[in-house]
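Q: Entry one of two.
A:
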Amino acid sequence: MNVMRAAGSLRAGILLVIWSSCATAGFAQSSPLPVPQLTPAPSDCRPATGVACPPLGPTAGTETRRAEEVPSGFRDAMRTIGQDFVSFPSTKTFTLLGASGALALVGTAGDRALVRNLDGTRLPVFRAGARMGGLEAHAGLALGTFVAGRLSGNKEVTALGFQLIRANLMTQAITHGIKFATHRVRPDGTGSSFPSGHTSTSFAAATVVQRRYGWKVGVPAFALASYVAASRVNDRRHFASDVIFGAGLGVAVGLTVTRDNPRAGSFAPVVTRGGMAVFWTKTW
């Protein structure tokens, strides 16, 4: 048993190192959310003279956006975290929680039957899920990314780490609040089953990554989150309905902490010979 736990911890540690390395070395370069920089026009640029005028980009570029996402200090960080909780109640949040809650309610009808069918069939492939989705792994990933960004001076990595920290804090607070209110017994007989904290935290992190870097990074992130969710059912730590609602809660939290992220497109005014025009730029 100790060997199995050590192997699980090793896998989680390797995953943490890989994610931190990717955040430091690759995410800043692969971001699909660049914003055009301000391009100064020549002094003799006049629409009436026929002299071509370059596009005038927005005054705030990518670096400005990243700087605004990084807290200036502890007080600024606490203010942002507090605003996360204020912003959580929204139409989008209630829609997500309502849909996942309805699916979880339907799923409760087959919870016990699924546990009976899986009795004695714990697949070894899911053994690492408990470590990967645990608080230690997610807190280490978030803090490690934030510290790596600070030490390297990379605002993009720092901003990613800060959003992961915020997602962790909000997910843990809401998840444990619901656990305390429901007191649902787990399949293995222990308490605090609903919802799955491993699942909610994993899906919150996956949503943050997808919102910042698009689906090329989001798909594997959600695949890992789904693996964690499946492992909780496989290990008899949660019913299927627990992980269904946990996934919806995680996505809602992830959308909340990334609410200020710019969309993958931008508008820019352009001076033309005949007057003005507006260009819309989208990164594919």
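Q: Entry two of two.
A:
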Amino acid sequence: MEYDIVVVGGGPTGLATAWHTAARGRRTLVLDRHGFFNERAGSGGAERHWRLQYTQEDLFRLTLETLPLWRRLEELAERTLVHSTGSLWFGDIEVETNEGQIAATARTMDRLDVPYEWLGARDIEKRFGFARLPAHYEGFLQPDGGTIDVRGTLAALYRLAQENGAILSGGERALEVLPDADGVTVRTDRGTHRAAKAVLANGPGINDLLAPLGARLGIRLYEMALVTLRRRAPDHLPFWFVFQQPAEQDTNLFYGFGHNPWSPGDLVRLGPDFEVDPLPDADAATGRADPRHVRRLCSWVERHLPVLDPHPVRTGSCLAVLPADPARQFHLGRADGLVPHGEHLVLHSSGWGFKLVPLLGRICADLAIDGRTASDIARLAPTAPQEAQP
């Protein structure tokens, strides 16, 4: 079959790309080897953190650019997808983490005129139910942050892609992607497809398709624990992330969601943000939380967050696909200079990117159709020599 665009990967970015390309009248095929709405990588779980703030100004500007696209997606979906419950960052304001740095992020918010409320340790305890925080802990509450409804978002993107004419093929695995002077051939376990352009948005599987072309992206895989706890009483917790000096055994970073506005009951999800013990490949993920990491989180909650019962209701894990260079945040761009005829390939992989999904889809569509995008993604381009390994 011949298409204008074949999208490999039917997760959030792939579906968002198909929405935009199909809406622009391009014949679009989306392939997903595991089937749509699976719980792997970027589409697992019920919620993701929505935030405006980044330490890096170029990424911060991307979230500001994304917000109107979320509102448009909500309008088309006829449901709220981003719930502004607040985003609370607190702890050691000078510590450098994979999430950023509090003090530097506050300066970026000042430059971009984004509102926030600065809070000391006692303020955080009084307002949100934390306890026994070190006296030097400080931070900010950014009121526009909050929680994204993952399943609602995926359902909306799937429907919009389909309604605009995209062909969505679940359970079909791309085995080979071969760009040439005239376009791209995509060979799957069901047949062969021909397209003018291909968008690779298949998370940890992207290197399986790039390696035969002589390239690899710098990616690391981690299996991170997810812990569900029960609230002792109604509360008004925002999303929170605590920045702390690293411990000997891990990064000593923890986060948690408040109660999901769309969910009944008293359960909330938390996790340790430990980038330790990288996996050799996605198939090595067990689906089980490391009990050591669960104990570390629950011990912190027992001491510092008494509004929650520290005994897990359930545990699980998520597969985090992250750039090998933490300063990069994402791989995003065309494959020019990375592989022969790379101008026919658009790549997106790795990073905590769900908050940017509507924009990522538009960017990938722009690159595939127009060969360029108005968004500033120069630093994220997957063509840096250190990222391409023959």
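A: Comment on entry two: Confidence is low (pLDDT under 50) at residues 384-390. The first strand starts at residue 2 and ends at 8.
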